[in-house]
């Protein structure tokens, strides 16, 4: 919460499965588009929040399976757990809020009386969430019966049915919308409320996000029937909620443009001959360089000595590159290696993901940048933490220093480019 010194220009709060992450897109095209847009144009002054029904266990599993960038805040277990940053520090204040009129033992005791309910895996049973599967034709009757029982037992609970099968029992004060409202109140108390907030979802448990006052909302084109029905009954005349014509993360990008919340053209969508940004941000420079390397290795650029010469002009004559193995090289040697790897990934599912770009100005014309870089080749990935120093000369940056350190060691004799 303290990463930004001033209010966030934009806070995106997005569900993951079938919203940010498209499980029907094996190439993760829309996710890569969003990731590149965020790191190039938003990371430096905005906040990314993932709000998922997944438990911490399943959330971490998804991060291993899909090329996801790191959020500033993670809301998990249908709004019952809030954590901050890469290390996922829990919010103890939220735990205190949820403990009011909540008794997990009573809930387990009463739900065992319903044979229609099938208990979900133990990883999905959380301190403030008890989860089951129930068939669609039984859900309404079970929900109504449980609501009466819990009221009689003196509990304030919320029952959420989503995805046509998942039934979650939470404290009444919990949920994705309540967690978002809690965060906004916390930002307000710190004097840093986001300028704009965009909530993104596809299923019934995302409806709460769209009820938070002042928030823009987008239902992706593949939104489920239960969310569309909620919208028709509760918000069909609300101009701040968009039903996108694009799927998943592409729908989020569409909403950014629709509501004029900021740039919505991903660097991945810009032709190379147009990709000459005047006075770029340091983060954009990092993203654009790695995107060019990706295209070079995929042979999506014409093989040309002029391309290599252009990159060499962006390096400082005395610059140093330190390979993850620890060997030190002249930075121009680092660039010249690209000649040897042109097209080596052609026809392969190869992508470079730049994540968590943090820029600190350390001089009038000099920036220190840190970021994580992942190379994906199909299901395999290898990554490194990168520290770099960029110096601005007129409208362009030059690379002074690059130091890479392995995150996951695989193929240690390969150059990470």
TrEMBL record:
Cited InterPro entries: HAD-like_sf, HAD-SF_hydro_IIB, HAD_sf, NTF2-like_dom_sf, SPP-like_dom, SPP_C, Sucrose_Phosphatase, Sucrose_phosphatase_pln/cyn
Annotated catalysed reactions: sucrose 6(F)-phosphate + H2O = sucrose + phosphate
Cofactor(s) in the UniProt record: Mg(2+)
Enzyme Commission number: 3.1.3.24
Keyword entries, A-Z: Hydrolase, Magnesium
Molecular-function annotations in GO: magnesium ion binding; sucrose-phosphate phosphatase activity
Pathway, per record: Glycan biosynthesis; sucrose biosynthesis; sucrose from D-fructose 6-phosphate and UDP-alpha-D-glucose: step 2/2
Domain of life: Eukaryota
Domain spans labelled Sucrose-phosphatase C-terminal: 282-408
Pfam families given in the database record: S6PP, S6PP_C
Domain Sucrose phosphatase-like: start-end pairs: 9-260
GO biological process: sucrose biosynthetic process
Family to which this protein belongs: Belongs to the sucrose phosphatase family.
Function: Catalyzes the final step of sucrose synthesis.
Assembly information from the UniProt record: Homodimer.
PANTHER family: SUCROSE-PHOSPHATASE 2-RELATED
NCBIfam families (alphabetical): HAD-SF-IIB, SPP-subfamily, SPP_plant-cyano
Protein name: Sucrose-phosphatase
């Amino acid at each position: 919460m303290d990463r930004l010194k001033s209010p966030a220009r934009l806070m995106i709060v997005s569900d993951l499965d079938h919203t940010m992450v498209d499980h029907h897109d094996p190439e993760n095209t829309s996710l890569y588009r969003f990731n590149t847009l965020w790191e190039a144009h938003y990371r430096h002054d905005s906040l990314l929040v993932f709000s998922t029904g997944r438990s911490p266990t399943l959330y971490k599993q998804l991060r291993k399976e899909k090329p996801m960038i790191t959020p500033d805040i993670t809301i998990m277990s249908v709004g019952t757990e809030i954590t901050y940053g890469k290390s996922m520090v829990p919010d103890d204040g939220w735990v205190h809020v949820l403990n009011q009129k909540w008794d997990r033992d009573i809930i387990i005791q009463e739900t065992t009386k319903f044979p229609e309910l099938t208990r979900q895996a133990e990883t999905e049973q959380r301190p403030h969430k008890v989860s089951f599967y129930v068939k669609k034709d039984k859900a309404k009757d079970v929900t109504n019966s449980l609501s009466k029982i819990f009221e009689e037992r003196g509990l304030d609970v919320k029952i959420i049915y989503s995805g046509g099968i998942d039934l979650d029992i939470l404290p009444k004060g919990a949920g994705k919308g309540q967690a978002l409202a809690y965060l906004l109140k916390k930002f307000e108390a710190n004097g840093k409320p986001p300028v704009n907030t965009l909530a993104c979802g596809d299923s019934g448990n995302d409806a709460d996000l769209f009820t938070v006052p002042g928030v823009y909302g987008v239902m992706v084109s593949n939104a489920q029937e239960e969310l569309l029905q909620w919208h028709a009954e509760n918000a069909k005349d609300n101009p701040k909620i968009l039903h996108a014509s694009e799927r998943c993360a592409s729908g989020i990008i569409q909403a950014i443009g629709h509501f004029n919340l900021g740039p919505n053209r991903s660097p991945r969508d810009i032709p190379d001959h147009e990709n000459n940004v005047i006075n770029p941000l340091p983060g954009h420079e990092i993203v654009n360089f790695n995107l060019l390397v990706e295209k070079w290795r995929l042979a999506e650029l014409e093989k040309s000595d002029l391309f290599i010469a252009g990159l060499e002009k962006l390096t400082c004559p005395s610059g140093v590159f330190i390979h993850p193995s620890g060997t030190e090289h002249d930075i121009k040697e680092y660039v010249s290696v690209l000649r040897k790897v042109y097209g080596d990934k052609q026809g392969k599912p190869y992508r470079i993901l730049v994540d968590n770009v943090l820029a600190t100005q350390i001089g009038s014309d000099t920036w220190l940048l840190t970021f994580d870089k992942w190379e994906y080749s199909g299901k395999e990935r290898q990554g490194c933490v990168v520290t770099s120093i960029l110096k601005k000369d007129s409208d362009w940056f030059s690379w002074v220093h690059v130091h890479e350190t392995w995150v996951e060691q695989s193929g240690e004799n390969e150059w990470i480019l």
